[in-house]
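The instructor's notes for this session suggest beginning with a concrete chain rather than abstract definitions. Hand out the sequence below and ask the class to guess, before any prediction is shown, which regions might be ordered.
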Amino acid sequence: MVLRDKETYMRRRSRNRYNLKKKSVDKPRLCVYRSNKNIFAQVIDDKTGKTLFAASTLEEQFKKQKVYGGNVGAAKKIGELIAKKAKDLGVKEVVFDRGGYLYHGRVKALADSARAGGLIF
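After discussion, reveal the predicted structure:
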């Protein structure tokens, strides 16, 4: 990554986190991390600083299916899984933390499938 790209990523990330802290009063945060080969999502309670639950393409069910984790299809499955886990724990509303990533591609696919699964953000 070129230094300029990293600087813009860090600026976007800090700007996004600043706006999230204003909005998230009592809501947990759905945080997304993507690498070239995998995508990860976790729901974090910022009051206690603990992760409530998480899902990624490195879990056993994805390894058994031999699904490639670096595409939009895998991101949709992770969004569905996060929504299902949230429903099981009784979490209905979250704040979406996209980090420094643009709301496009895999990040958007994960968010849309989580919304379709019943999460509100």
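Then share the key points. The two ends are 31 Å apart (CA to CA). The CA atoms of residues 91 and 119 lie 8 Å apart.
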